[in-house]
Design goal:
Strand content: over 45%
């Protein structure tokens, strides 16, 4: 979970423009399957056990608390359009997720307990996140406030450093 301070959206003119008054948090939830390889390096590093790994799975990008203000063009009936300042709110979508990791663990005095340090890179392919735009103010057109629902592609990339305590139930 991270705070969001900046969002760029592609406008009808094709340019990426920032939203104003951006606020909210993005959270990514995932289910991963990892393969981890313990590097056989007992002579080189003593009791320290280095390892590398990769993972694949599925991640959900939750941007439902993220919002900001922009300027949009709304399609109206009979091929008319309406352009105004708008409020932009984002939703949730899922995508294929992947990760790579590298770390090392050190056995502690309690049999099976290990102290670990690890770096992980986590990413997702593009998720098709719903985006709702609603015209600001009390401007109504044909009795309704102009709004639109679209989908924007988002992907997550995250770098994580972890310090951990791990217990092996079947230690060697």
């Amino acid at each position: 979970s991270n705070g969001v301070a900046d969002v760029l959206t592609r406008r009808t003119n094709g340019l990426l423009e920032p939203l104003t008054n951006v606020n909210g948090r993005i959270a990514t939830y995932s289910v991963m399957s990892n393969a981890i390889y313990d590097i056989p390096a007992a002579r080189m590093f003593g009791p320290v056990q280095p390892y590398v790994g990769v993972g694949v799975g599925y991640g959900w990008l939750n941007l439902s608390g993220v919002h900001g203000n922009g300027y949009g063009t709304f399609d109206l009936p009979e091929n008319n359009t309406y352009t105004a300042s708008d409020s932009v709110n984002f939703g949730t979508a899922g995508a294929f997720a992947y990760q790579g990791l590298i770390g090392a663990s050190l056995p502690l005095s309690l049999h099976g307990l290990k102290l670990g340090v690890e770096y992980r890179f986590f990413g997702t392919t593009r998720a098709d996140v719903p985006v709702t735009r609603v015209a600001l103010g009390n401007n109504t057109v044909n009795g309704v406030i102009p709004s639109s629902l679209a989908h924007n592609d988002f992907n997550a990339r995250d770098n994580v450093f972890m310090l951990s305590l791990r217990y092996d139930f079947n230690p060697r």
